[in-house]
Amino acid sequence: MSAVKNGRMHLESIRDERCIMLEGRKVSDVASHPAFRQSAQTVAGLFDYQAANPELMTFDIGNGRRANRAWQLPRSYAELVERRKALTAWSEQHVGFMGRSPDHVASCISAMAMRADVFEAHGKGRGQAVLDYYHHARDNDLYLAYVIIDPQADRSKATGEQADPFVTAAICDEDAEGITIKGAKMLGTSAVFANEVLVASLRPVRDGDDKYAFTAMVPIGAKGLKLMSRRSYEQGAVSKFDYPLSSAYDENDSILYFDEVKVPWDRVFVHRNPAMSFAQFHTAPAHVYQNYQAQIRLAVKLRSLTGLARRVCETIGTLEFPQVKEQLGVLAAQAGMIDGMVHAMEAKGRMEGGEGPLNQGEFFIPDRATLYSANVLAQRLYPQVIESIRDLAGGGMIMLPSSETDFGNPEIAALIGKTQHSPVTDAKGRVKTFKLAWDSVGSEFASRHTQYEMFYSGPKIFTAGHQYRTYDWNEATRLVDDLLDTYDLPAASAAGKAA
Ligand SMILES: Cc1cc2nc3c(=O)[nH]c(=O)nc-3n(C[C@H](O)[C@H](O)[C@H](O)COP(=O)(O)OP(=O)(O)OC[C@H]3O[C@@H](n4cnc5c(N)ncnc54)[C@H](O)[C@@H]3O)c2cc1C
């Protein structure tokens, strides 16, 4: 076996009994199906990249084996930065367009393992289950997805108040072997390409709704697990020239339905405990680590979109207009802000450790408040970035030949040459740039990306709530109180003797 997992090994590892529903049929082999195969190749390409760059991308896990640095548990600032460089390099492979690349949920599970003591305090054996699973997932360099949000049914009602108590996945049975899960979870991005899925509740679960307060790991090929895929964008994007992103980076999203799926106890991390359901993400640094990965990826994506905006302006000769320079400057500032915030999370990070049985010692944790600042700002900023690129591009993204095959017809190719002019490139170069621009900001794939960036970390009300919870209000209000303490009513006014 190779010392590092490569693409071929990953594609072999997902050739199983998985049940994906797409357009009225069941699909299992994503590596060969036209709705998934190009993106499956992109995933394989990530593992090939790590195999080709083992020092940058992987770390020694003993016995001559190496695993992706997403599984690395940083014991210092320097190790966190080393890990981030690997995550950045992976993001560059898909220019930030694979939101749930394998390093995302690996970051979450790794952070849970850092605080196995929290799980052990919740229930004997749960912490060991987390640690054992971490080692299993790391040693096999598994690609994990997660489903941690309840399906939208009636949001005015709590999970346990819905008309059907099993619209949201819940424990429906348990015995000496484990638990049985029944019901749905909202969206599993990349689940169709993954080995296993983490099922949990990120949002607080009400006391009394204990059957929803569980966390379990389930293989995607598990009996009873059904994945209902949304429409594939890559299936219609048959030409890379016409749809450079849709054709290669359609990471897929699917509703997961657990049709009485059995999970053994050693894959159950949280069992019927609302408080622990919250603590697994927030006392253990899982939420911060998974979203830190997301900001590293977003920094790459924004850098690329800013570069694209500049190329668009060069292509249509608007670059020297002062207003265009101003707009590009704002875009660069937005990209620079997220990049800078990633560095700030690291620089303001600190060592944190656990206590009691299964305490793993101290690890370096990115600064939570800075992370949540980035989350809150990024979900508002992304639609602005997209609108700005649309504004800079004008109708050029629509004034395009129908497909690359038009270039193969001499009569149409001649017309393309007469109509697609640019001060910096030929007709093909102009069409190529604008097809990329449309697939970045306007196509169905691009539109899904705007929805993704606006919602992957939660609706605005919840991300702002995390910032509210973690911001250092004492420091902020101390400044105000110190200032207020420097003055008072003038003596005359206080004594009622004003003129
Ligand atoms: C493209 C995409 C990919 C995703 N991938 C994943 C994934 O891989 N894994 C996963 O677990 N999840 C995934 N999600 C789900 C994502 O986490 C949720 O969309 C997100 O948490 C928001 O929840 P929601 O969609 O149910 O919106 P809701 O919570 O229903 O919110 C919708 C709107 O309703 C309003 N609202 C809701 N609740 C309140 C309230 N209490 N008070 C006031 N207003 C409220 C807000 O205006 C909000 O914007 C994905 C989502 C998208 C769009």
Notes on the protein architecture:
This protein is α+β, with helices and mostly antiparallel strands. It has a domain at 286-480: Butyryl-CoA Dehydrogenase, subunit A, domain 3. Helices cover 46% and strands 14% of the residues. It contains 17 helices and 14 strands. The chain has helices at residues 7-13, 37-52, 54-57, 77-93, 103-114, 116-122, 126-139, 274-282, 286-315, 322-347, 368-393, 410-419, 427-441, 444-455, 460-470, 473-484, 491-494, and strands at 19-22, 25-27, 58-62, 65-68, 144-147, 170-174, 178-189, 196-199, 215-219, 225-229, 253-264, 268-270, 350-352, 363-365. The strands form 4 sheets. Strands 2-1-10-11-7-6 form a 6-stranded mixed β-sheet, with no helix packed on it. Strand 1 (19-22) and strand 2 form a beta hairpin. Helix 5 (103-114) packs antiparallel against helix 7 (126-139), helix 11 (368-393) crosses helix 13 and helix 11 (368-393) packs antiparallel against helix 14. The radius of gyration is 25 Å and the shape is globular. Residues 100, 146-149, 152, 155, 186-189, 253, 448, 451-452, 455-456, 458-461 line the site of flavin-adenine dinucleotide. Flavin-adenine dinucleotide (FAD) binds next to strand 5, strand 7, helix 14 and helix 15.
